[in-house]
Amino acid sequence: MPAAPVSSLLALQQCLMSYPNHSSSTSFTLIGIPGLEDAQFWIAFPFCTMYFMAVLGNITLLLVIRLDPSLHLPMYYFLSMLAAIDLVLTTSTIPKLLSIFWFQSHEINFEGCVSQMFFIHSFSTAESGVLVTMAFDRYLAICKPLRYSAILTGPTIAKLGLVAVVRGIAIVTPLTCMVTSLSYCGPHIIHHSYCEHMSVVKLACGDTRLNSIYGIMAATIMVASDSILITVSYMLILREVIGLSSREARLKSFGTCGSHIGVIMLFYTPGLFSFYTQRWGQNIPAHIHILMADLYLLVPPMLNPLIYGMRTKPIRERVLSLLWQKEIQSQS
């Protein structure tokens, strides 16, 4: 996993250097939430709260899994990957968004805009890949328990995580390079809170059909393939769980899988709504679309640690024990 951020930065740098026609003086203006400009100052407070909870929750999840040897298992390693990706997604967008809402800092230079777009889309794709590996993990744990440890070894887990990140980079890098090759000769005003791909492409004055076609095909194929793999995994899991003789075992299996299904719904539903609305949702008010796009990068990262923390007993007990120890130390 450590090589993934380095490779993503190298891929991004290569795209930016390949097209030197965009000078460092080129900049865009991010509107924020069109139609709600007067309310943005107050909207920033719940956004800031959600961002703080997302960062705190995911860092806590990473530390708890790192410090507790009993949690050094495949399921928790995949949770660590999910938490790390969520931290990248929120941190690449929310600080700038808050500066727009509170300090009227609307300007973003070309390199910063392209970098933000690259990290949003590549790590969103990577998160989808990690959700697939988590579904595979649950399938092995429930349907192939005797082979679970033999299949999901440490090197295999690392390779699965690396593949998820590299796939995201491989899909988004051509998209980023195509964006850097476009000419932007009109008003550089992005009607969005961050540099979403189509919001940037709409500012170009040349032919952008290739960008649109590639973006739609890449997103549709990625989401369709990942959704099919996840659905198949859970159909096999459901068949296996229904066949269990113990009611307690069935409830435990459903509880474990329920957390994952909840995370999947939180990730895909607003993401697909935002993606397709950007292209064909002309009848949907702009502020609704932009709010959904903003919440897509906030709500899942905020709720993922809470869902797993509340539904996963070892993590919940470990967090509570740490809090209890701190309380005893402060009283003494």
Automatic annotation (TrEMBL):
It is found in: Cell membrane; Membrane. It comes from the Eukaryota. The keyword Signal does not apply. Pfam families: 7tm_4. The keyword Transmembrane applies. One of its GO terms (cellular component) is plasma membrane. Gene3D superfamilies: Rhodopsin 7-helix transmembrane proteins. PROSITE patterns: G_PROTEIN_RECEP_F1_1 (PS00237), G_PROTEIN_RECEP_F1_2 (PS50262). Keywords: Cell membrane, G-protein coupled receptor, Membrane, Olfaction, Receptor, Sensory transduction, Transducer, Transmembrane, Transmembrane helix. Residues 57-308 form the G-protein coupled receptors family 1 profile domain. It is a multi-pass membrane protein. GO terms for molecular function: G protein-coupled receptor activity; olfactory receptor activity. The chain crosses the membrane at residues 41-64, 76-98, 118-136, 148-172, 213-237, 257-276, 288-308. Belongs to the G-protein coupled receptor 1 family. Odorant receptor. This is Olfactory receptor. It comes from Accipiter nisus (Eurasian sparrowhawk). The lineage of its organism: Eukaryota, Metazoa, Chordata, Craniata, Vertebrata.
